[in-house]
Amino acid sequence: MATRRPATVSEGQRIYFVSLGCPKNQVDTELMLGQVQAAGHSLVDAPEGADVIVINTCAFIDAAKEESVDTILEMAQHKQSGAQKLIVTGCLAQRYADELANDIPEIDHILGSSDFPSIAQALGKGTTVQARKRKGLPVIQVAETPSYIYDHDAPRVRIGARHSAYVKVAEGCDRPCSFCIIPKLRGPQRSRAIPDIVAEVEALGREGVVEVNLIAQDLTRYGWDSGSSPESRATLAQLLRALGKVGGVEWIRLHYTFPSAFDDELIDVIASEPKVVKYIDVPLQHISDAMLKRMRRGHGSRVTRELVQKLRSRIDNLVLRTTFIVGHPGETAAEFDELCGFVSESKFDRAGAFTFSVEPGTVSAILPNRVDAEVSAERQQTLMEIQRQISRAHHEAMVGRELDVLVEGVSSEHEYLMEGRWYGQAPGIDGVTYLS
Q1: What whole-number distance in Å separates Cα of residue 209 and Cα of residue 212?
Q2: What is the average pLDDT value for the chain, to the nearest integer?
Q3: What pTM, to 2 d.p., does this model score?
């Protein structure tokens, strides 16, 4: 889905952006928007009026890759009716730069997932790298190992709700999960310093942001790369304490945590810090010991079960969100049944299920005992039906409760309805609350 910005009045070229994929990609798009605007270019709200079209792509699973390619082809058509340049960046560009260059000649410039800070230069005319384009080839700027991480001084134009913002506290990932391509697309983990993150959140608070969503590839591992020993490095618990003192911001939400990285200090801070909402997104992926080993998750089912019990016993009114993968190579019917039983017992507030997507270059892509696609789809439907019943029961149990709701405006469903979110609803993934 395209993220559009209204036109602004300034000198330079007219730029249209399409942002695909996850909130982490959205932050990258916002940083590019900031750079483009700071360089004197204007942002337009439709490709028909653009001199340059920029597409920030996703390549996490097959569906995301297909959407990215379809969007590139759709936007390429505008080069026949006014657009002068087509720039492709993001994870698809990082992974398939050469293929894109060879297969889609309409592309003028390809920037990797860590190379998007060069967007302003890519918009320029007569740069030395343009010699490649004069030969009919796209200019490719893709670092072999992504290394960029922004700081609070980077210009940024936020998109979406003005009262809610994503803050990327780290980039990259060091986990060896067998099914995941993210470490190759985003590079090793690199964490921002606590004072730098605090400065960004303070600025957001002054802009009227009341909800800050902390994101990273592995949020609970924040700071592990910042020191040679556990005593010297920054921690997520320290960061949350610091952010809890920032004025204006009322909700601090945690996304993309990892089950084996929770320690007692972090759990205590989540439980006691008033501004940290009692909502945790922790993708568990599976519960079978054999499956967790195949997935190279680094822990077994005992860690998962103990974590769920510990979080719920120590954090009052906790809303727990998770995701699972079904149909991973080697998953037996018995192992899937074990997962269904775990979901039934655990009664997660929110849960999603993905069918396994073969990602070339990952360990899982070469594992034997593939699960048939139809079987995977059936397992996904079965698991989600179990979760639907659980979610319905959770919703029915909420009748009569009084909750603070972050009102977001008039509902798209009806002009006489307002809509918003309570703390158990993260933006974009957990639905909305209607107010009459």
Answers
A1: 7
A2: 93
A3: 0.92
